């Protein structure tokens, strides 16, 4: 199989910051590429792991032009064949994806499918970050041994109050109770202080979207995040 990967999988390390581009217009098409390049510049300048998760349609373009980890939003638990409209993990890999989010709050997957999907991911050689809305769900998912579990309280996603401010207790509990799998924290993360609180409480990464994609100056935000991340390497 011929891959167009950027070989960034080996660059995945903790603490990691993953920016989910979602379907924001400011992070689609050529704007997605520009935003990914800003991530790459800041990652190199500060020596931290910044990954991007663009829409599937932008993965090829981005992965062929940046050297930071590129993750898909989702893949389907299928292989090559009669699967119209499905996203085959091998196809994402060929396009240059190094891994994938899975079970994001905006793209939920039944638990049994998560288990099968993680087997498919292992076959492809994907880094997997599986999302959960609660610590309990995160514990169940962690038992399936993804590379990371991302805890995101649903009510805080896309809002202006961060999980670090509104619910540091969920970070503490997630870190204490989710064993053997790094915990990534997301929802409403906007400032360096939000990042500091989450990492101080033991999180090994940050999952962010609007704090970067909707920022007037995404580079300034990423620099602020990167400076804090450096303290936790
Ligand atoms: O995947 C990241 C996410 O759902 C959090 O979004 O906009 O609250 O940073 P946001």
What can you tell me about this protein's structure?
The protein has ten helices and eight strands. It has 233 residues and is of the alpha/beta class. The termini are far apart. It is globular. The longest helix has 17 residues. It has an eight-stranded parallel sheet. The chain binds SN-glycerol-3-phosphate. The site of SN-glycerol-3-phosphate has 15 residues, from strand 8 and helix 9.
Ordered list of secondary-structure elements with their pairings:
Blueprint: E1 16-20, H1 30-46, E2 49-53, H2 56-63, E3 71-72, H3 89-95, E4 99-102, H4 111-124, E5 127-132, H5 135-142, E6 148-151, H6 163-166, H7 168-177, E7 183-186, H8 192-200, E8 205-208, H9 210-213, H10 218-230
Parallel strand pairs: 1-2, 1-8, 3-4, 4-5, 5-6, 6-7, 7-8
Helix pairs in contact: 1-10, 8-10
This protein binds SN-glycerol-3-phosphate (G3P).
Residues 20, 104-105, 152, 157-158, 186-189, 207-211 line the site of SN-glycerol-3-phosphate.
The kinds of small molecule bound in this structure are: SN-glycerol-3-phosphate
- Output the CATH class name: Alpha Beta
Major sheet attributes: 8 strands, parallel
What is the 3D form? Answer: globular
Looking at CATH, the homologous superfamily is: Aldolase class I
What is the total tally of β strands? 8
Share of β-strand residues: 5-15%
Low-confidence stretches: none
Tally of helical segments: 10
Task: Give me the Rg, rounded.
Answer: 16 Å
């Amino acid at each position: 199989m011929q891959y167009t990967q950027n070989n960034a999988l080996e660059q995945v390390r903790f603490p990691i910051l993953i920016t989910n581009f979602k379907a924001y217009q400011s992070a689609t098409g050529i704007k997605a590429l520009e935003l990914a390049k800003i991530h790459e510049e800041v990652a190199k300048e500060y020596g931290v792991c910044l990954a991007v998760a663009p829409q599937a349609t932008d993965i090829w373009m981005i992965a062929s032009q940046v050297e930071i980890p590129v993750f898909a939003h989702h893949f389907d638990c299928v292989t090559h064949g009669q699967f119209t409209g499905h996203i085959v993990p091998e196809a994402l890999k060929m396009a240059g994806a190094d891994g994938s989010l899975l079970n994001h709050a905006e793209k939920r997957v039944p638990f049994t499918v998560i288990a099968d999907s993680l087997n498919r991911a292992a076959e492809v050689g994907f880094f997997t970050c599986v999302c959960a809305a609660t610590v309990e769900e995160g514990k169940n998912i962690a038992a399936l041994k993804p590379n990371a579990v991302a805890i995101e309280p649903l009510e805080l996603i896309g809002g202006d109050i961060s999980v670090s401010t509104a619910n540091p207790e969920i970070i503490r509990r997630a870190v204490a109770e989710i064993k053997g799998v790094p915990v990534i924290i997301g929802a409403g993360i906007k400032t360096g202080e939000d990042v500091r609180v989450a990492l101080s409480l033991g999180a090994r990464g940050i999952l962010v979207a609007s704090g970067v994609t909707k920022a007037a100056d995404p580079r300034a935000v990423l620099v602020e995040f990167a400076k804090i991340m450096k303290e936790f390497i």
